[in-house]
Write a structure and sequence with these properties.
about 290 residues; three-stranded mixed beta sheet; 12 strands; about 25% helix
Length: about 290
Amino acid sequence: MSSTAPLVSGLTANKAAASHCAYVTLVTNADYAMGALALARSIQLSGTQADIVVLHTGGVADAALEPLSELGCRLIRTELLNTSDAFNERHARGKLHANAPFTKGRKPAFHSPLDNFCKLRLWQLTEYQACVFIDADALVLRNIDKLFGYPEFSAAPNVYETLRDFHRMNSGVFVARPSAETFAAMLKVLDQPSTFWRRTDQTFLETFFPDWHGLPVTMNMLQYVWFNLPELWDWKQIGVLHYQYEKPWEKDHPRSAELKPLIDLWHAYLDGKSIPDIASLPNPFTDAAA
């Protein structure tokens, strides 16, 4: 990889910014590095001119990041936030999963809740006027550059089971305006005595931005919609497909048979081969009605 250059405290980049806008993702281990490769390839294929930025922590080896560098991504090394020992203990994997268990789906073994707060480093990327954050377990299926014009803070609802979930936010895709002042304000709110963010960054951002702007559900289509709410699924409208809970690179996970068409699509983007025409793919409710 190329030589690094310091940005601000806690961040080091492999090259300078080339655009005023950026798609940003976070990689905290080799699994998410693989996910980020499929995501970055899908973003490039959308025809965007925006930068693709990969925030990565010390848990990722250079060899896992090399394909992202070769693809032209801007790699930015980041450290975990300087949170207190008590905060870290409350949000450690075992403690968080015990106090706020996931009952709707299964999180993989490499899920590390404390790493999620590194998303807040996005607000330190002040060389950009606007950023669209996308989780590394997602794909961009068509050009979504229009999101750079959306206000801060914009995110899609956390809908994947019932329509009652439209009032909740999902932080897998969001629009933000980097700002040192906003980042400093976030840190003051984040680590208060006894604070517990049940869904880590998601709960925090929903609290910090109580009047968040709603993106269309198609800008963060959660994979469980495929079988729970198939009437909402329309390949022609989906901008971002988000593989929440089980990941498409996990072998034989509990939902692998139900989600096979989505898993096959992810592997096509990872390999960069035989990527289908998205608009021509069959919708789940079409198959059910046949």
